[in-house]
Amino acid sequence: MTISTTTPGRAAVRPPQGWLRFAAPQQFYPLAGQLAPWFAALAALLAAAGLYIGFFVAPTDFQQGEVYRVIFIHVPAAWMSMFIYLIMAFWSAVGLVMNTRLSFIVSQALAPTGAMFCFVALWTGALWGKPTWGAYWVWDARLTSQLLLLFLYFGFIALTRAIEDPRRADRAGAVLALVGAVNVPIIYFSVQWWNTLHQGASVSIAKAPSMATIMLVGMLLMALAAWMYSIAVALWRVRALILERERHTEWVGAVLEAEAKAAGGVR
Amino acid sequence: MKARNKRLLLVGGGVALLVAAVALVLSAFQQNLVFFHTPSEVVAGKAPVGRTFRIGGMVEAGSIKREADGLTVNFAITDTAKVIPVSYRGTLPDLFQEGKGAVVQGTLGPDGRFVASEVLAKHDENYMPVEAQYALDQAHEAARTVQQ
Q1: Residues B82, B52: one domain?
Q2: Does residue B57 sit in the same domain as residue B114?
Q3: Assigned domain for B137 exists
Q4: Residues that constitute the known binding site of B for heme
Q5: A246 CB near a chain B CB, below 8 Å?
Q6: A194 reaches B (C-beta below 8 A)
Q7: Which family is this protein grouped under (chain B) (predicted)?
Q8: Do B7 and B58 share a domain, yes or no?
Q9: Is the same domain home to B90 and B24?
Q10: Dihedral sign for Cα atoms in the order A79, A141, A129, B134
């Protein structure tokens, strides 16, 4: 298939060259389809290695015993929930400034995955809190701000789905994503700024990790797995959103026809 | 100025204003965001009087004493500067130990004794294998023997 690069009457607008051309949904759709399975495979490998180290290799903790093993799920999920929100805010800002449709699509594709990780972090934290602290839930600054993050995710998803006109939905969601991003540093630094029941960070850029190396390796493998999983799932969701939004265009018609033909050939 | 730059300025300015507003709100609510008070703050009279609040600190070594009924526990909580005696009736979390962090919730009696209705163990951010802790204890023990 050839794509005409010049449009009569719009000769002044040069189509973007290099990797910027993937900002066009039509160009990004096949790229995402090619990349997603690789990220999914990496996620599966890393998660298998991380879980094996976490549950079979890493030793028992001196204070908490076996219950500490929740960190192999809890910490990567919590990191991912914060990081995904920042990425959503970044693409929202890019979308608002540059008027690129794909940016909004990417931030909306990330939201459900971020909400899922946020829920997992809260849920595993509660299960860990009962035997360790003696309570499933306390209203300290860390837990409360993380709960707020979950509501921000729900709010973002609800807002972008509730508005019919995709351009207005994109803009409203982007503003909410930017406003909510202020909460992320609050979550991260809450354990330093205020007295909280939640312990401080075991791993940070500023200091050496206060954790045995093999435990750390398991946790970092799981964190990488969470990254790869998020990228894979987001790419697939971006493809679905692109098809939905561009369903009236010629190229989507051609893609769907080709896929139907391929599926028919297999049968 | 290009429209794109104008939008960049608008978005950037909006976010900057928002961050400033949130920073002001947080610093105004500084006191309310604190999950617990330290024993020093309580002694200095900075803790709320007549209503429930929390004290956080270390359970002083050798201070845990159980009463004859088997349910009531007396112990002292400290931040190494000041010590607050605590009474509590109920079950304690597994990680509640002498020399470890704890957060107690309750009210301060007129005699200076804190009557707790809830005790939470505060965990630290250190994770290590049982053998490593054993080795550390051995090293401390050896150092003490050498000093004597």
Answers
A1: yes
A2: yes
A3: no
A4: 123, 127
A5: no
A6: yes
A7: Belongs to the CcmE/CycJ family.
A8: no
A9: no
A10: positive
Q: Which amino acid is at A223?
A: A
- CB-neighbour burial class of residue A155 (10 A; exposed 0-12, middle 13-18, buried 19+): middle
Could you say which of A60, A135, A195 has the minimum Cβ distance to residue B34? A195
Map tokens 């809260």 to a residue.
A122
The verdict on B34 touching A (C-beta cutoff 8 Å) is yes
Shared domain for B22 and B90, answered yes or no, is no
Q: Are residues B27 and B61 in the same domain?
A: no
Q: What letter represents residue A157's amino acid? A: I
Provide the residue range defining the domain that includes B24.
1-33
pLDDT 10s digit of each residue in chain A, 267 long? 445 444 444 445 566 777 888 888 888 999 999 999 999 999 999 999 999 999 998 888 877 778 889 999 999 999 999 999 999 999 999 999 998 899 999 999 999 999 999 999 999 999 998 888 888 998 888 999 999 999 999 999 999 999 989 999 999 999 999 999 999 999 998 888 887 888 888 877 667 777 888 889 999 999 999 999 999 999 999 999 999 998 888 888 888 888 888 887 655
**Residues in A touching B18 (Cβ below 8 Å):** 178-179, 182
- B118–chain A Cβ distance below 8 A for any pair: yes
Chain B: closest CA distance from residue A204 (Å): 11
Element at B53 (helix H, strand E): strand B53-59
Specify whether the CB–CB gap between A226 and A76 falls below 8 A: yes
Chain B neighbors of A177, CB-CB under 8 A: none
CATH of residue B50's domain is 2.40.50.140
- Which ranges of chain B would DSSP assign to H, the alpha helix? 3-28, 39-43, 130-147
DSSP structural state of residue B92? P
Does the beta-carbon distance from A179 to B18 stay under 8 Å? yes
